[in-house]
Amino acid sequence: MIPFEYRRAGTVEDAVAAVADRPEAVFLAGGTNLVDHMKLGVAAPSLLVDIGHLPLSEITELPDGGLRIGAGVRNTDLAVHPLVRSRFPALSRALLSGASGQLRNLATTGGNLLQRTRCVYFQDVTTPCNKREPGSGCAAIGGYVRYHAILGASEHCVAVHPSDMAVAMSALDAKVVVTGGNGESRIPLTEFHRLPGDRPELDTVLTHGQLITAVELPAPPTGARSTYRKVRDRASYAFALVSVAAELTRTDNGEIASARVAFGGIAHKPWRAREAEAVLQGSPATEETFEAAAESELAQAKPLEGNEFKVELARRALVATLRSLTEPTTAEQVR
Hints:
Blueprint (H helix, E strand, L loop, with lengths): L4 E4 L3 H9 L4 E4 L5 H7 L6 E4 L8 E3 L5 E4 L4 H6 L1 H6 L1 H8 L4 H6 L2 H6 L50 H7 L3 E6 L2 E6 H4 L18 E7 L7 E7 L10 E9 L5 E9 L6 E2 L1 H7 L6 H12 L10 H18 L3 H5 L1
Parallel strand pairs: 1-3, 2-3
Antiparallel strand pairs: 4-5, 5-8, 6-7, 6-8, 9-10, 10-11, 11-12
Helix pairs in contact: 5-8, 10-11, 11-12
């Protein structure tokens, strides 16, 4: 057992100050990712600052119809919240497809965003990993890469971000509310996580001591439909090979008025599909448009030897997701 100190924070400010003062201190909420890594020897913090009792577990409606989600809200509670289910079904479905019921009951919104981007080599301390030990090399390159990146990777790291929730929030234009020594700030979720570059050990743009206190979702556009699709090797407790979160609105004549799309399972961060969105915007909601959008986004894919199938899988997943959002609902079919 690696010794560490434990401290329960009384306020957000106390928590921020306690971690900021200690380079090897970390925040502890649900602990579903951190505790695993401590057991494996991947993480060895000298101080755990428990934020689980702070008043960060509320879901409140914003004046514009959006939501403010406290960082301490459990994944299960967020998934089943009536306003999430009715206004942001993509987020609810993403949460319910992640991990197991037991983990969803414990994992928090902030913790989900901060889980490490990782692969099997990161969690095996006997193998080289630039993310775990900068400069040691990447065992995945030339190794087992079924789950690894086809977009945004670098020669230093090819791992993919594991979150389902973050993919949906990326497509929904969420903002992460952060408190640090300089007060409160908001970071678009699309800019919150980092691509590996030559610093794969840095998962996010946060500086040491900054604490996520909430996530804010803007109101969906009028008439928007959204969903989340996850393709995986087994039906539960498995990371995505490919996932897609998408939201569409259409004009009266059937053209796509707005489109927001994000991929999971294929990049080091939730991958906002800007190229696909550009193709979809203003185009007819047809199979040809969906195919063109997928081809445009995936033209930049660089699969590894062993995960080439992900390119075609991502194409099919995106087309199927977009098709599902443009099919008549049950109510429309009855008319």
